[in-house]
Amino acid sequence: MSVQRIESLPSLPARPVDSNKGQFGHVLVLAGSRGMAGAAALCGASAIRSGAGLVRVASAAEVQPTVASFEPSYMTYPLPQDDDGLIDFARARPAIERLASAATVIAAGPGLGRSDGTLGLVRWLLEASGKPLVLDADALNVLAEGHVDLLAAGDQPVVITPHPGEMARLIGGTVKDIQAARVEQAATFAGRFNPLTVVLKGTGTVVTDGRRAYVNTTGNPGMATGGTGDCLTGVIAALIGQKLPAFEAAQLGVYIHGLAGDIAKDHNGVIGLIAGDLVDALPDAFEHASQDPDIGF
User: So what's the pLDDT on residue 1?
Assistant: First the structure.
């Protein structure tokens, strides 16, 4: 397979003086379950810090108050849950359909947990939602349990953001296989499904749609901590909401995400860096990128 290597980064369109929130996308985040409120909150906060006009985080009912308490700038919604504190898709479907109809883009997976309900939700998103999707974490884990072909179910843009372990489960291989040929493995998988963009996380995060590949240059070892992947999901979703195509949104998203990690490292060090520091650094990362003559907004 011949894959074109991309080195240049896209830029966001300039914002008109008379801008309003309706112009910059409505991100719906489907995330969070018992014990995993933070994953939903980090994803939602990252989306709102990445320029989304509106963000709504819909989570299992018992964690919705906790998710709401993290950040007043996004909206929240409590969804019916099962006995394990996970979203009960059969009962939640009418509400999810209503919320999705108003959304520009949907991010799903962080902290959802693995269950039949999670699989039902991911199946519906891919088969029937018709919305651009960013899928991470448990949305990928349920696909890896014999349901990978659902990625071909719809014709909307889909971005998946696996770490090497999740990627290995998706292809039925090993982490060693993935790490030995990161660009080739990600591009081959992306090429099976159209339109699919794969973001293979890790040192030198790979972004590929099977035809093109970008290897990211920002980021540091301090980002190897829980929650930073949830942040990336929110960043990419926000950029899709701002009308960047999926591949370009993923490219700029991983660059900005890594740059925010580098800024956070300068303030907090490698050892003490946490995902919340990265969220706080996103505005500075976007400002820095806007002044870069090779990017510029």
Answer: 64
The most distant pair of C-alpha atoms in the chain lies apart, rounded to whole Å, by 53
Query: What's the Cα-to-Cα distance from 76 to each of 25, 66, 72, rounded to whole Å?
Result: 16, 10, 9
Give exposure, 23-54, as e/b (b: 16+ Cβ within 10 Å). Answer: ebbbbbbbbbbbebbbbbbbbbbbbbbbbbbb
For 29-58, what is each residue's pLDDT tens digit? 999 999 999 999 999 999 999 999 999 999
Number of folded domains that form the chain: 1
Tell me if 259 sits within 8 A of 222, measured CB to CB: no
d(C-alpha 199, C-alpha 183), whole Å: 10
Would you say 248 and 209 are in contact if contact means Cβ atoms under 8 Å apart?
Answer: no
Q: What are phi and psi of 214, to 5 degrees?
A: -125, 135
| Average pLDDT of the chain to the nearest whole number | 97
Residues near 288 by beta carbon (within 8 Å), at least 6 away in sequence: 259, 263
Query: 10 lies in a domain?
Result: no
d(CA 41, CA 46): 8
List, for residues 60-75, the tens digit of each pLDDT value. Answer: 999 999 999 999 999 9
Is 6 a domain residue? no
pLDDT tens-digit readout, 103-146: 999 999 999 999 999 999 999 999 999 999 999 999 999 999 99
Residues of the domain holding 256:
25-213+227-290
Q: CA of 133: how far to CAs of 12, 148, 154, 236, 239, in Å?
A: 19, 15, 11, 10, 12
C-alpha R_g of the chain: 18
pTM, entire model: 0.98
Across the strands, what pairs with 200?
206
CATH code at position 57:
3.40.1190.20
Q: How many CA atoms within 13 Å lie on the side-chain side of 103?
A: 29
